[in-house]
Amino acid sequence: MKQNSKVIPFLWKEGRVRLLDQTRLPNEVVYVDCRRARDVWLAIRKLKVRGAPLLGIAAALGFWLGFKSLRGGRGDDLIREARRLRAYLVSSRPTAVNVAWALRQMEEVVVHNAHLSKDRVLAALEKKIKEIIDDDVRMCLRMGEHGAQLVRDGARLLTVCNAGGLATSGGGTALSVFYRAQKDGKKIWVTACETRPLLQGARLTAWELAQAKIDVTLICDNMAADLMRRRAVDAVFVGADRIAANGDFANKIGTYMLAVCARHHGIPFYCVAPFSTFDMSLSDGRAIPIEERDPAEVTSLYFRRPIAPPSARVFNPAFDVTPHALVTAIITEKGVIRPPFGKNIRSLYGSGAGKNKRDRAR
Ligand code: MRU
Q1: Ligand 1 test: best mutation among 23, 47, 50, most atoms within 8 Å of CB?
Q2: Residue-level pLDDT, tens digit, the chain, 362 residues
Q3: What is the pTM of this model?
Q4: Are 253 and 292 contacting, i.e. CB atoms less than 8 angstroms apart?
């Protein structure tokens, strides 16, 4: 299936894996060649590739590269290697459950086919990865369709981080809603929060939306509440990295603050994510593992210019958890889920999509 976004975040052709180095956007469009599982692990850790659904795809490609480089073997040897690769790649970043979700599928393919030759297992892995990629494109389209019904012509929408074509193999999660609204002929204005410390909103979302000719205004993160008070935001749409069974969800740091402000100002707050982002093994958001990153991300401006004394103590969580009570609805590929979330998630989840009960990354 064709990727429907103009930005292609990965290339997987003729036995090669190339990942768009998102740390160099918007100034340069450069792809990094990944030849080994370790190259993909590093690309994930360093945020060259990022965004929950895309992390799942990248991890699956890393698994494939690792498996491809095995010398041979059958049966238990292959299963042992599959377990090793899964454990290794899942350690790259802890919060997005899509990594564990995709790797579990890779391991299952190996377990089911371990009686076959390594080449035939590899072919089965390739088929599974294609399925994951195509499903992701389809899920983005569905989320866009469902979400766009909540967007009126002339709406002013706010988002954070990048939940777009750069974070999926399709048009994105939150941004797929904007793309669909635009396709339906609605005029929309988007505000992108810059998303300190790594500026995914400024570097990626503002760039991606401008490419798609969607009217986008960039703000610093601390300007959002004031914008809401001025009645300049009609709705907030964000992505997610992991959603617990009760609807609490982790997303880029700053999301919780936006949800609190949106509730205070009576503005609808929507989380857009596929079922591969649900972790039904967690009853609520308290157990979601939150990644803490390098203090240098905070003490410098995008690793270039120091903006704090070297002695400054730093706290740098990459994600926060928004309690479900602040969420108006969760938009998935299967439909829009409204409160009570626990009950409504269970009934939609139970109807088939993306079961990942055993997918805890930690
Ligand atoms: O640290 P990042 O850039 O990987 O964080 C990404 C986000 O928080 C996204 O909003 C989330 O993964 C959803 S992407 C469709």
Answers
A1: 50
A2: 334 445 799 999 988 999 999 999 999 999 999 999 999 999 999 999 999 999 999 999 999 999 999 987 778 999 999 999 999 999 999 999 999 999 999 999 999 999 999 999 999 999 999 999 999 999 999 999 999 999 999 999 999 999 999 999 999 999 999 999 999 999 999 999 999 999 999 999 999 999 999 999 999 999 999 999 999 999 999 999 999 999 999 999 999 999 999 999 999 999 999 999 999 999 999 999 999 999 999 999 988 899 999 899 999 999 999 999 999 999 999 999 999 999 999 999 876 544 444 333 33
A3: 0.95
A4: no
In the set 21, 135, 136, 241, the catalytic residue is: 241
CA of residue 337 relative to chain centroid, distance: 19
Quick check: CB of 163 below 6 Å from ligand 1?
Answer: yes
Q: Cβ(241) to ligand 1 under 6 A?
A: yes
Q: Which atom of ligand 1 is nearest to the CA of 273?
A: 15
Is residue 166 classed exposed, middle or buried when 0-12, 13-18 and 19+ CB atoms within 10 A define those classes?
buried
248 labelled catalytic: no
